[in-house]
Amino acid sequence: MSRKRIRCASIAVASLLALGAAWPALAQTQEVKLGFAAPLSGPQARDGKDMEDGILLAIDQVNASKPVIGGQPVKFVLDAADDKGDPRRAVIVAQRLVDDDIQGMLGHLNAETTILASRIYAAAGIPEISMTTAPAYTEQGFNSTFRMQTTDTQQGSVLGRFVVKQLRFKRIAIVDDQSAYGRALADEFEKAAKGAGARIVRRDALNPKASDYRAMLGRIKRERVNAIFYGGAEAPAALLAKQMRELGVDAPLVAGEALKSDSFLQIAGKAANGTIASMAGMPLDRMPGGADFERRYRKRFGAAPGIYAPYAYDGAMAMMGAMKRANSTAPARFLPALAATQMPGVTARTIAYGPHGNLKYGSITVYKAVGGRWQMLNTAVER
Asked: Are residues 115 and 35 located together in one domain of the fold?
C-alpha cells in the first residue's frame, strides 16, 4: 500500500474515532417530559404560577448543563396543565399527562386534587412530587409519592404546641372549612393543643361559600375563648376575621399557611391584626440557598419569588437529579434513586425523604399580623 493510501486510511480511522467520541453531542437530543399541574386560573392562579416558575428555573439550570442520560443528550421540557384547583378536573388533567408520556410529575398544589390525581400517576408507575401538605397523600400505600413541603401533621403539631406553651392559650375553639386540608390541619392542631394542656371548648365546620358566620361566632364568643383556630383555605378567612371583630371577639385567629398571605391582610384590613399563621418552611432570607435563588429568580422572571417557588425548584431538582444518578429517565429505573435522594437544597441544607416520601427535615415558621405586615415569631425544625 502506498504511503498516500496509508495516510488517508489513518485520517479516516482518526475521524471515525473522533466522531465516536463526540457522538453524544451529535446524537439527537431526547426530550424528557415532566408533568406539572396546579391552579393556573381562578383565585389560586398566582400560587400556581409561582410554583410553575420555580420548576422552570430548575429546568433552565439543568438544561444549561447539557445533561447526558443513558449515553444520550437530553432536554427537559415542562408539560403544564391548569387543574383550576378542582378535584374532578385534576383527574382529567392527570390522565391527559399520563397519555402525554410524562416521565415524572411535579404537582398538584391542593390536597383534594393531589390525592385523586396521585392514584392515576401511581397506577401508571409515574413518580410524583407534590406541594400538598395533607398527610393522606403519602398514606395511600404508594411508593411513588413524595413531597415538596412538610405535612399538616408537622405544621398542626408545631402550631398547637406553640400557642399553648408559648402564648399560654388554654381555651380554644376550632373551625374547619370541611376540606381535606382544613380537617387534617385542624385534627393535628387539636391533638397537639390538648397534649400541651389546652381545652378545646368547641369544634365547628363552616361553609366556605357562606357570607355570614356570626351565629357560629356568637356561640364561640360565649365560651370566652383565648383563640379560634381555623383550618381551611384563605377565601372565607378574611370574612371570618371581620365578623369576629364586629361581634367583639377579641381572641386572635390562628391558622395554617393559607392565611399567611398579603391578600388576606389586605382583604381583612384592621381585622387581620393579631392573626397568627404558620408556614411550612422558613422565610426566603433564612433559607440556606435563599439569597442565590432570589437573585436568579429575579433575573429570570423580573420579580421576587412567592411562597411556593423555592420548594417547587427543589422538587424539580430532586426529580431530575434522580434521573441523572440512575442514568435513566424510565420511571421504574429512577424511582429508587429518587427515594434515596440526599442533596443540598434551596429550602433546606439536605433534601431527603423518609420511608413514605415525606421530607426528613422540615421547618415550620409561625408569624403574627401586626399593622398590616407579617412578623416572624418562631421557627421550628421537625424531624
From this structure: yes
Q: Which three cell numbers stand for residue 21?
A: 467520541
Number of H helices, E strands in the chain: 13, 15
Which pLDDT band holds residue 383 (cuts at 50, 70, 90)?
A: low
Whether 10 maps to a domain, the answer reads no
Cell 397506577 appears where?
123
Q: Is the dihedral of CA 172, 177, 182, 188 positive or negative?
A: positive
In degrees and rounded to multiples of 5, residue 305 shows phi and psi of -70, 150
Q: Is residue 236 situated within a structural domain?
A: yes
257 DSSP 8-state letter: G
Residues 250 and 375 in one domain: yes
What gap in Å lies between CA 253 and CA 163, rounded to an integer? 11
CA gap 13, 347 in Å, rounded:
51
The alpha carbon of residue 310 and the mean position of all alpha carbons in its chain are separated, in whole angstroms, by: 9
Number of domains within the chain: 2
Task: Give whole-number Cα distances, 342 to 58, 197, 337, 383, in Å.
Answer: 17, 38, 10, 15
How many Å from the N-terminal Cα to the C-terminal Cα in the chain? Answer: 74
Identify whether residues 206 and 308 lie together within a single domain: no
Which range of residues forms the domain containing residue 62?
A: 30-149+285-352
Given a cut of 90, is residue 45 above it in pLDDT?
yes
Residue 18 belongs to a domain: no
Cα–Cα distance for residue pair 131/149, rounded to 1 Å? 6
Half-sphere exposure of 25 (CA within 13 A, CB side): 6
pLDDT in tens, 203-249: 999 999 999 999 999 999 999 999 999 999 888 999 999 999 999 99
